[in-house]
Amino acid sequence: MTDKIFIPQGETIPLSHIGATIEALAATISARRDAGDESYTYRLLTGNEDGLLKKVMEEAGEVALAAKDIERAANQESLTGNEHARSAAVDHLRYEAADVVYHLLVVLDRYGISTDEFAAELNNRMTDGERPTGGVRLFDEYVKRGK
User: How many Cβ atoms from other residues are within 10 Å of residue 117's Cβ?
Assistant: First the structure.
């Protein structure tokens, strides 16, 4: 954990499949800092910042288009009775969403934001009832809303 976040005393750290996966991916990304030019992740971490940021924008756009494809596929299914199109579109959205998460984690690593610190940002945006028990939080001096 960084010195910007904390877990409230008496709360336990939650277990999560997505958390474990994100942590493993973040560790792999961080380890690629020493991989060399043969690694795509290394090139994203150390290369031209515009290339990485354009990739995040591109992948986010692909998520939006994939989501729209689900709507179109659902309409097609209602007309044709073919259930395969919607299922394939959902699979495509999942694939594109994974690309966004990967590239976002590369951006966070490039600029020194840990997954714990990112989780704390998300947790700070939730109400007490929504936030997971034991979820890390940002200390007040690090909470920034807007610019």
Answer: 18
Note the pLDDT tens digit of each residue in 17-64.
788 899 999 999 999 999 999 999 999 999 999 999 999 999 999 999
Q: Cα separation of 41 and 106, whole Å?
A: 7
Three state DSSP letters for 37-105: CCCHHHHHHHCCHHHHHHHHHHHHHHHHHHHHHHHHHHHHHHHHCCCHHHHHHHHHHHHHHHHHHHHHH
Q: Mind listing the pLDDT tens digit for each residue in 119-128? A: 999 999 999 9
In whole angstroms, give the CA distance from residue 33 to residue 83: 44
Cβ-based neighbour number of residue 44 at 10 Å: 23
Question: Helix 17-31 crosses helix 84-110 at what angle (to 10 degrees)?
Answer: 50
Q: Which two tokens stand for residue 65?
A: 């288009």
Provide the residue type at 79 as one letter. L
Question: 47 vs 28, 41, 50, 58, 116, CA distance in Å?
Answer: 18, 10, 9, 17, 25
